[in-house]
């Protein structure tokens, strides 16, 4: 389906073939409301909270709560902007399609390939992390569990790859249960901490108090500057929340399901990030947290619950597998969207009989396996560099969403396009505010020596994309001339 064909299906109309509901792009609409809701919830909960928050607490103290709250508000503005676009035209290419329509073909090309790279890089880190988490159970094990790290990396990649090529329903089910584990863990921690604060049980009962949020050196113990410098890792924690937009072409009822999922963003962030951190830091002084140590593990230890380490290890393993699963899902769709619009190899357009992008998913999975080897051979600071590059790549998608929404709203207000049934409140001012916030985070990344490497890599990636686009343009022009002749 080319861009011209897309315009013929602006209403996201569905076709019926062999009794199956399909989108205009050929995908099967196999994701129900239950799965979309949990994909939306799980997309905002990952290792950035379960592991990364420890570093943030160490750097900013209790004020990390404020950083998550403000960034969460910005994420809500981004998601409402995306929601407005999705209700205008729900397509699987999502923000890549919108960038192509409202900014230009080159913007769509850059967005599609950058988001694909983001998920490949993220998948590399997450499948490597998942295999590392397995060492918690295998280091003292005998028999089949006593395997080197690369074996589990291979096993996880193959399993998730297979699941993504069986059916979109299976992908949705995996994400549903992955998300359920994460949600249950956070809710359980909140309830335990609430019990300690009100009843006073466990080893932490005598000292637990909400006053610890400001009695341990103040709410900003290391200054506001330290809080600002945590925004990069805070935004990284929220990456993948936009994945719900990629599911638009495979949602059973996108006009109903997607707005409901997007409107849950505020309470998701309020409960799972702000609420969880308020509870944990009211039970455990912020000075007890260290980089590289999960705040959940530290809290369990303070409470005298030794089983906490095993529980959190299982949860972060689940979070890593969820992220890798999402990566395989989204990369295949992005590559197919690029190919359908003449911006990628044509063989990526092939779908299986179940309506799944075979070659796009296969190539992405193969690259994730290469990344496992690279991470195994050269660990060092590679993870920090990859996280920084993933952050800048993911934020590019957010920037394109916001600019596309601003331009769409202007055209809709002039009567050039139909109005969306799910308008972003306060737009375009909220979209401009979100853009300004994202650019501030990018500036802060330039100040942070650990994150600066991603800004060095960005121009190189931009050059590669520019050269690739020129090649694609010449190829498409040549093909058009051959047709005319």
UniProtKB/TrEMBL annotation:
It is a multi-pass membrane protein. It comes from the Bacteria. Keywords: Amino-acid transport, Cell membrane, Membrane, Transmembrane, Transmembrane helix, Transport. Its main location: membrane. Residues 1-12 have a biased composition (Basic and acidic residues). The keyword Nucleotide-binding does not apply. InterPro entries: AA-permease/SLC12A_dom, Amino_acid_permease_CS. Residues 36-476 form the Amino acid permease/ SLC12A domain. The chain crosses the membrane at residues 38-57, 63-82, 102-130, 150-171, 183-202, 222-244, 265-284, 304-324, 356-376, 382-403, 424-447, 453-472. Residues 1-23 are annotated as: Disordered. It is found in: Cell membrane. Belongs to the amino acid-polyamine-organocation (APC) superfamily. Amino acid transporter (AAT) (TC 2.A.3.1) family. PANTHER family: GABA PERMEASE, L-ASPARAGINE PERMEASE. This is Amino acid permease.
């Amino acid at each position: 389906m080319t861009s011209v064909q897309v315009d013929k299906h602006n209403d996201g109309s569905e076709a019926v073939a062999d009794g199956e509901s399909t989108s205009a792009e050929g995908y099967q609409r196999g994701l129900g409301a239950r799965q979309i809701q949990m994909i939306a919830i799980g997309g905002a909960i990952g290792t950035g909270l379960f592991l990364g928050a420890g570093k943030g607490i160490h750097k900013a103290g209790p004020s990390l709560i404020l950083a998550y709250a403000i960034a969460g508000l910005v994420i809500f503005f981004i998601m409402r902007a995306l929601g407005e676009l999705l209700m205008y035209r729900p397509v699987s290419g999502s923000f890549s399609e919108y960038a192509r329509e409202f900014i230009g073909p080159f913007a769509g090309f850059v967005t599609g390939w950058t988001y694909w790279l983001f998920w490949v890089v993220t998948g590399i880190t997450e499948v490597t992390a998942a295999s590392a988490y397995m060492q918690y159970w295998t280091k003292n094990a005998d028999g089949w569990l006593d395997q080197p790290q690369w074996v589990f990396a291979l096993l996880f990649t193959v399993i998730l790859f297979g699941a993504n090529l069986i059916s979109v329903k299976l992908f949705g089910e995996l994400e549903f249960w992955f998300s359920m584990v994460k949600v249950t863990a956070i809710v359980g921690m909140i309830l335990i901490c609430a019990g300690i604060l009100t009843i006073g049980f466990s080893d932490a009962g005598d000292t637990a108090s909400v006053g610890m949020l400001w009695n341990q050196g103040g709410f900003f113990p290391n200054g506001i500057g330290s809080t600002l410098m945590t925004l990069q890792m805070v935004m990284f924690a929220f990456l993948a929340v936009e994945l719900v937009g990629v599911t638009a072409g495979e949602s059973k009822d996108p006009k109903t399901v997607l707005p409901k999922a997007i409107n849950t963003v505020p309470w998701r962030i309020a409960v799972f990030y702000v609420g969880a951190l308020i509870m944990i830091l009211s039970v455990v002084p912020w000075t007890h947290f260290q980089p590289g140590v999960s705040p959940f593990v530290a809290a369990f230890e303070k409470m005298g619950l030794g089983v906490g380490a095993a529980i959190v290890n299982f949860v972060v393993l689940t979070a890593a597998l969820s992220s890798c699963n999402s990566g395989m899902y989204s990369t295949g769709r992005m590559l197919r969207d690029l190919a359908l619009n003449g911006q990628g190899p044509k063989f990526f357009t092939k779908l299986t009989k179940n309506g799944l992008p075979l070659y796009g998913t296969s190539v992405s999975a193969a690259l994730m396996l290469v990344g496992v080897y690279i991470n195994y051979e050269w660990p060092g600071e590679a993870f920090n560099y990859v996280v920084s590059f993933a952050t800048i790549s993911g934020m590019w998608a957010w920037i394109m969403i916001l600019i596309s929404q601003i331009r769409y709203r202007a055209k809709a207000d002039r009567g050039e396009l139909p109005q969306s049934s799910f308008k972003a409140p306060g737009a375009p001012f909220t979209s401009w505010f979100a853009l300004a916030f994202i650019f501030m985070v990018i500036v802060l990344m330039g100040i942070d020596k650990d994150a600066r490497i991603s800004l060095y890599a960005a121009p190189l990636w931009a050059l590669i994309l520019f050269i690739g686009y020129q090649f694609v343009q010449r190829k498409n022009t040549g093909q058009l001339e051959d047709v005319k002749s």
